[in-house]
Amino acid sequence: MRQAGSTSNVASVVVIGVDPRAMGQIRETLGTEAALPGQSTKYEDALGVIRKLRPDVVIAGFDQDFEEAIRLAPQIVAENGRTRLVALAAHANPDHIRAAMRAGYREFVVLPDDAELLRQAVHEAIYQEGGDEDHGEVVTIWGSKGGAGSTFLAVNLAAELSPVHRVCVVDLDFSMGDVAAFLDIQPTQSMSDLLRNLHKIDERMLAGYVIVHPSKVHALAQPTDLEQREEVKGDTVMRILTTVARSYQYCIVDCGSRLDEASLTAATVADRILLVSSPDVPGIKNTWRRLQLLERLGIERNRIHVVINRWDRKDAAFTLADVESNIQRKVDATVSFDRAAARSVNEGKLLRDVDKKCPAARDIESLVGLVTDGEIAVEKRTAGPMGWFSRFSGG
Prior knowledge:
The chain is α/β, with parallel strands linked by helices. It has helices spanning 20-30, 46-53, 66-79, 94-103, 115-127, 150-161, 179-183, 191-196, 203-206, 234-247, 261-269, 281-296, 320-327, 339-347, 351-355, 359-371; strands at residues 11-16, 34-35, 57-61, 84-89, 107-110, 137-143, 167-171, 211-212, 218-220, 250-254, 272-277, 304-311, 333-336. The termini are far apart.
């Protein structure tokens, strides 16, 4: 059993780099729920104060010196991994949110709008049962273009993990999410319901929004009917995925092929990213473009795995060596072209329930190795003629 985070019912808080106005907002928000300092600590003095007080929560201001707030986070985590880091800003800047998540901040709040989120973060810090090492793995699956097969791989990979792990598939395609359809389930509660109650979501309440498939895969699905909504912000996605990761050993995130704040946030917080491509020129070209984007976002290459879906080695227009030359990195796995896969989608069944011995089913079973640090075999790469295929990346 993990160790409790605090022996008191009041959280100890250190505040770094905020002005008197923001300090007043923090006091008004937390009231008697936290032991607050008399004033904000300067960035340069923060580590000394934290070593001395070992607080439950550190609230760092992002407005005075964003770069210094980012620089401090890994050092604070190294000093005391149990301390909960909260970023505070006057505005929700998507780039700052993603940078905060990469650095180790658990929440990004804007006061007074996120007052309830800050109160809950402080409350959870008192009763937390240990650090982030006990959180589940977040695996983001992102298609290079529409039809690449991200949902197919998400639900079937989750089914391979579910016999021995608690697994939840989170559908982050807010326009055309199909996780429920692929599993042939009818959600009574959906992502839309969760978003309306996000201010009070925790692990216990999350259970009311997921639906359980007979395979033991849990799913947080999009609603059956299309809905119009504003773009979901990065801090909202961060909150959802953090809650799921506390409840499950594996959080499989299906982003479809969307390029929006939700998918970029999911990529930023992921322990692993499976970038799924179809075996054609548009798919491979967009894989290369997304790899460049992930690099610009500062996401480490070792977190990214390229998967070619519907690969037909006998009838492919090019070899894996061609693909790797153009995307400038290796292909980590392939999933075979298989008619059983199309049948499973049309029938709303898992591939293993249609034909567990088919080549694609065996390939998906082996994908578990990418998620669990196992080894995975990919066919021998035989270089072939490049021709027109190389033009998009200048090869």
